[in-house]
Design goal:
By secondary structure, the protein is mostly beta strands. The chain has no helices and 8 strands. A hairpin with a 6-residue loop joins strand 2 (35-41) and strand 3 (48-58). The radius of gyration is 17 Å and the shape is globular.
Length: 143
């Protein structure tokens, strides 16, 4: 994930609209708008809170390559899963998260400060899923 939301830009695609059909910017076609979705699923005590960023852009990546990724917070275990769908860029400095910071930060009450996966390293390949937690199977305590 990127360190601050200010590093990401949401864009409205030119043209399109509902009258343009299924490939319009509203339906996820090649010129789709940026979108951020959030949803809670599951039953109390075993819920997941999901936030998904679709076709967002890095503020400094001039190649205008869209990024898509998702974060899942597990109520029962406290695990956090981050899944990367689209991380390619025509700019090799930005490709696969080359200019990103990926990890988690704690609440400031430990000597460690968090857990770093990557910082300015191209380690965020499309299809990568990271789990930050204490369970061998992310989000599944005692199963």
């Amino acid at each position: 994930m990127y360190p601050f939301l200010s590093d990401l830009v949401l864009r409205r695609a030119p043209g399109g609209g509902p009258e343009a059909g299924p490939e319009s910017r509203y339906e996820g076609g090649p010129e789709a708008d940026s979108r951020v979705y959030a949803k809670t699923v599951g039953e109390p005590g075993d819920r997941r809170f999901i936030v998904q960023w679709d076709r967002v852009y890095s503020l400094d990546d001039e190649s205008n390559a869209p990024l898509s990724f998702q974060t899942v917070l597990y109520e029962k275990t406290g695990d956090v899963r981050v899944q990367y769908l689209a991380t390619a860029s025509d700019d090799p400095d930005f490709d696969a998260g080359g200019k990103a910071l990926a990890g988690i930060q704690d609440a400031g009450d430990s000597e460690y400060g968090g857990l770093l996966y990557a910082w300015n390293e191209p380690k965020l390949a499309a299809g990568l899923a990271l789990c930050y937690g204490l369970h061998p199977r992310c989000g599944e305590a005692g199963r």
